[in-house]
Amino acid sequence: MATMKQVALRAGVSVSSVSHVLNQTRHVSPEVRARIETAMRELAYVPSAVARSLRHNVTRTLGIMLPNNSNPYFAELIRSIEDRCYSAGYNVVLCNSDDDPVKQSVYLRVLMEKRVDGLIVMSSGDSPDLPGLLARLKAPLVLVDRQWQSLDCDTVTTDHRMGAYLATRHLIELGHRRIVCISGPEHLAPSRLRITGWREALTEAGLADDTLILGDFTSQGGYEVTQRLLGAADRPQAIFACNDLMAIGALCAIHQAGLSVPRDISVVGFDDIELAAFTCPPLTTVAQPKQRIGEVATELLLERLRHDRTEPCKIALQPELRVRGSSAPPSTTSGA
What we know:
alpha/beta; 16% strand; 336 residues
């Protein structure tokens, strides 16, 4: 790799002249600038980003912490964030915690050692140590789907409770009465809020809410839970899965059991990942505004970096129900 000294020798100028051209710290004549730029192209010279960040205390790099990169929801959300960062001239460093709070803490420290200018964090659960760790990082921060009163930072959330309420009310309005909820892990705040929304809709309709089964937000988990449900004497009329991956697992289990969706059982998911529209049948689901979440979270962080705002901003975005082919009124042969 070429060095600044080699560029200076090729251009026949001093190293300081090359430095002034790179950093725009002093006027350099057009003729000298042209020679330096020609030398850099010929030598394929790449300025050291590390050295420049040390001089200017800015790396033009943002750190992104996500809990599970195997979940398409996060992949689609990250795409939105990366697009906005790229258009603003920032690079992105991604870290995946695999839903492990310890790994999450380690990676957060690594990101700060890399001197990222700011952070967007989608945390793994409600670790009691996380607020203190984030506060000590001393970097502009946006939390996605998490809020802590002790943290003076921006947050972007979706109304998970309302989304689950809309999904459950949709099934109730279709005529379903035995509506099982396959939730995510209880230690995750979005999972708890979706359970709350499911219960609120059932209570409003005068229905029992004793059919909650804990899942793990994976397709395999949704598949295994649904297999157990289909083997029970009192088979459900409908399943509300608290994310699309579990709903897709449920569709697979129902098909393998020789049953039909939605003739025998209706299924509704949550997230509206791109695959949801291409399952068989297409999945009715609650759409999180992923594109908007990514854009808003990135813009809030950029505002902080530009010093446009100092007060924390709390934004809650609304989900929408997308009705497709996996939900319908119960048939007379479905055990209703």
